[in-house]
């Protein structure tokens, strides 16, 4: 491999490539992104190159004065580009950012997780006329469906047709009356009327009567030709159209529905929610916000912080705020119910995402939170437990919700103990949403 091949290989390795999506969500810098623009780092790798020193270096293979001779030790390693103690340097590599809009982010996250949420539109914003695919019994003459008329007439023709000459032979049976011939024909499923038989009987000449001793003799000696064979031989002369066969085409009315979503994010900000827990909350809820923004035409977000009380905050404050108070999760769900009154479930897709360390005041989960979750209509309720190193003894909220509501198809409970758990948690939430049916 020559120098040119080496350079080509380094160019391929050093090509600007954005960070893997799952790694970005779990470990990347989310703070560079906004609600409408996801900024994913691209590592910049410099290509190697030769640097020629213009100073005279002496002859080939010659060192400077004092250079050890062959066989002599070269001494201890000298500090390089690390710190003074020879440790590796900590200076970060340069980065640029790949800008991804929420729609692209949602598409790639679907591919990453093997999911594809198809949002349902709820609020009708427009009705348009589609193709003339629907049929009605009345309408303007210009919309008469001639093909349907022909089909219905032809169907009647085939159902009513019979071999007239065969039935006439029945009239030639000795002493047979029109009623006798009618019953004989009907026993053979021949769709003939008594009036037609009586009319044909009146037209028979005297020398045509009494040619057969019985109907059995007619059946043995005269063939009843099937309708399809006769039509093939004689062709189709007429089709008996009737008024009730008429069908009129009219356009299908297509309702265009706007895909609206409202997301209420709830976070425990009590004293037990320290920095590591807050970071895990942000890493889980932020990609969900981007994802739903990319999936829906209109996305509205509300953020509720709570300790023993709850209050609405803006997004930047939501992930940074910390309180020294206790915890009462039901206070947040009461506020969420008030906020969602502005967004009728018949018109809006609704999500309620709550996150915390599962610590709650005594009996609040059972007596208040679970009844509130049951009363709030939503596509999905999700609770994300963030407990690095495992749950504490009094961290029972997630377990109680899971026990009481875990069998519902619009409730997801997931746990995040470290950044590696974030992608799995997002999958748990979105895959639960994928099974819901409005």
Topology overview:
Blueprint: H1 3-14, E1 17-18, H2 21-27, E2 38-43, E3 95-100, H3 102-113, E4 123-129, E5 134-136, H4 146-160, H5 164-170, H6 178-187, H7 194-202, H8 215-221, H9 227-234, E6 248-250, E7 253-258, E8 260-268, H10 275-295, E9 298-306, E10 310-313, H11 315-320, H12 330-340, E11 349-356, H13 364-375, E12 380-386, H14 397-405, E13 411-416, H15 422-433
Parallel strand pairs: 8-9, 8-11, 11-12, 12-13
Antiparallel strand pairs: 1-2, 2-3, 4-7, 5-6, 9-10
Helix pairs in contact: 3-10, 6-7, 10-15, 12-13
How does this structure look, described?
By secondary structure, the protein is α/β, with parallel strands linked by helices. It has 3 domains: 1-48 and 92-100, no CATH class; 141-250, no CATH class; 259-433, von Willebrand factor, type A domain (Rossmann fold, 3-Layer(aba) Sandwich). It contains 15 helices and 13 strands. It has helices spanning 3-14, 21-27, 102-113, 146-160, 164-170, 178-187, 194-202, 215-221, 227-234, 275-295, 315-320, 330-340, 364-375, 397-405, 422-433; strands at residues 17-18, 38-43, 95-100, 123-129, 134-136, 248-250, 253-258, 260-268, 298-306, 310-313, 349-356, 380-386, 411-416. The strands form 4 sheets. The chain has a 6-stranded mixed beta sheet with strand order 10-9-8-11-12-13, with helices on both faces. Strands 1-2-3 form a 3-stranded antiparallel beta sheet. Strands 4-7 form a two-stranded antiparallel ribbon. The longest helix has 21 residues, at 275-295. The protein is elongated, with a radius of gyration of 42 Å. The two termini are 62 Å apart.
